[in-house]
Amino acid sequence: MAAPFAFEHRAEFLPESSDELLRSIPSAPGVFALRGADPSAEPYLTRAADLRRRLRRLLAPPEVLDENGQPVPSKRLNLRARIHWIEWTRTGSDFESTLLLYRAARSAFGPEEARKRLRLHAPYVLRITMSQPHPRVYSTNRLSKKSLRESFGPFPSRAAAERTCDAVLDLFLLRRCYEDLEPYPEHPGCVYGEMNKCMQPCKEGNPQACTPEQYAREAQRVFDFFLTRGQSLLDEVAAQRDAASEAMDFEGAATLHKQWEKVRAAALLADELVRPIDQLRALILQEAAPLADETRPEAAAVFLFEHGQLCGPERLSTLGVRAVREQTAVGSSLFAQPLMLAPVPLEPEPEAVPSLTPEDRARAAIDALAMHAESAPDMAEFCDHLSLLRRWYYRPEKQRAGEVFLPNPDAAWPIRRILNGAARVALGPPAPVSPADREAAKALKTKIIHAGREGVEREVPVLPKRPRTRKAVTPDDLV
To answer: Could you tell me the sign of the dihedral formed by the alpha carbons of 256, 259, 261, 264, in that order?
Structure first.
């Protein structure tokens, strides 16, 4: 069971000491709630890119007074006379602010009102109904516990899901009709059967139709296509193409290669995030909110999507990862990066506590998040968390801050890639190498290397040699 939500800071608001209170609130992004004297009343809840500036705007004294000293009504919202408590939590990123706002709204207003205020809608997925006698594929945004193992997503929109569905169905002979089939030999069928794009399971018993076993095998091929992100069909077509090439059937091999390209184009329509919904796992890295004694944090905030819920943040320190990042900016030489060298004691101290490596810290942060995600939420909350993930992931690349990592095929997390991503998020890109002084280089002697080789010949500066001073040997030195 999840712990009840609570803000990190809570302060009583008194109009006479409001300036001192507002100065103590950080000028940083976060989520805040303004509450009146009645604890049962609904709070004013929102997020802000600058907490202090937004609160000053809402709680500042009126700028214009009438001749009796009363404030003149204004269109600007001012809650100074109604607020008794201020609660806030500082965040490090827009993603963290959105997730924190959802948790606060769910605690303050309930699940339905929180979903309405944040405009959360269940994302579209593709479902293949393997549990039915005649499976089919269709796009839907209605999820249930029964359908999770048969659903693949999330997709950015309904149009994207249907576009992928149509491209995949063009590769197979699965039915596209929506009604519950009641097969009989004289069934009229549909236009897809006339175009040989359907196995016509509706005509069961007809010699021209397929058997239930044949249709089940075709449905399993479609399910494997989604499960392997198209790799199952790519391998199948590639094997047929290679066999045709070895049999000297080059026309057939060329036809199969075009089919392979068509399969690959259909597989690329689904983004990397599209996975079986019940197996979807993702790790998100964002900037972490600085601690009280930090100006800029050297740690990243880690969020985990697992078992249908978003958990986090957990701080992941980049200590020991900075040198690796800086090394990429100057080369791989140890002489260019002395920070990589560290003294190693010949004999360990008896009372020394072994320090955690960056890989150990990353695994510990992921394990701590996985403990909070052990219990699966209800389907409504599942859809809310999935919608929050989809909304952030499918943003344009320039607007999507942070990085996301998906597990390896063996279900293990790419720890080294996660550490490098945490360093990029927390420390920023590597510092560029200072440009060379071209004017000083002109004064140096030059020589041509690889003379006469087109595209390789170039002129390089020659550094002056240091003079060597040799001491003359005298007969006294030989004695």
So the answer is: negative
Q: 73, 99, 117 — which closes off a domain?
A: 117
Same domain for 216 and 241, yes or no, is no
**DSSP conformation class of 274:** -
Q: Are 465 and 445 in contact (CB under 8 A)?
A: no
* Cβ pair 84, 12 in contact under 8 A: yes
**What predicted TM-score, i.e. pTM, was given to this entire model?**
0.81
Residue 11 backbone phi and psi in degrees, to 5: -140, 145
Q: What is the pLDDT of residues 260-312, one digit of tens each?
A: 999 999 999 999 999 999 999 999 999 999 887 777 778 999 999 999 999 98
Do 187 and 103 fall within a single domain?
Answer: no
Which of 321, 312, 317 lies closest to 368, judged by CA?
Answer: 312
The three-class DSSP label of residue 383 is helix
Contact 315, 299 (CB under 8 A): yes
Nearest residue to 242 via CA among 224, 226, 257: 257
CB 11 within 8 Å of CB 26: no
Q: How many domains does the chain have?
A: 4
Low-confidence ranges of the chain (pLDDT < 50): 323-342, 352, 479
Tokens 């950080």: give the residue. 26
**Which of the 8 DSSP states describes residue 65?**
B
CA–CA distance, 361 with 354 (Å, rounded to integer): 13
What SS3 class is residue 296? Answer: coil
Contact 90, 28 (CB under 8 A): yes
Q: Say if residue 88 is in the same domain as residue 73.
A: yes
Rounded CA gap, 243 and 240, in Å?
Answer: 5
User: Alpha-carbon distance 2 to 373, whole Å?
Assistant: 9
Domain range for residue 154?
Answer: 124-223
Compute the distance between CA of residue 35 and CA of residue 87 in angstroms, rounded to an integer: 8
Which tokens in the block code for residue 153?
Answer: 């997503």
Q: Please give the Cα distance from 201 to 174 (Å, whole number).
A: 9
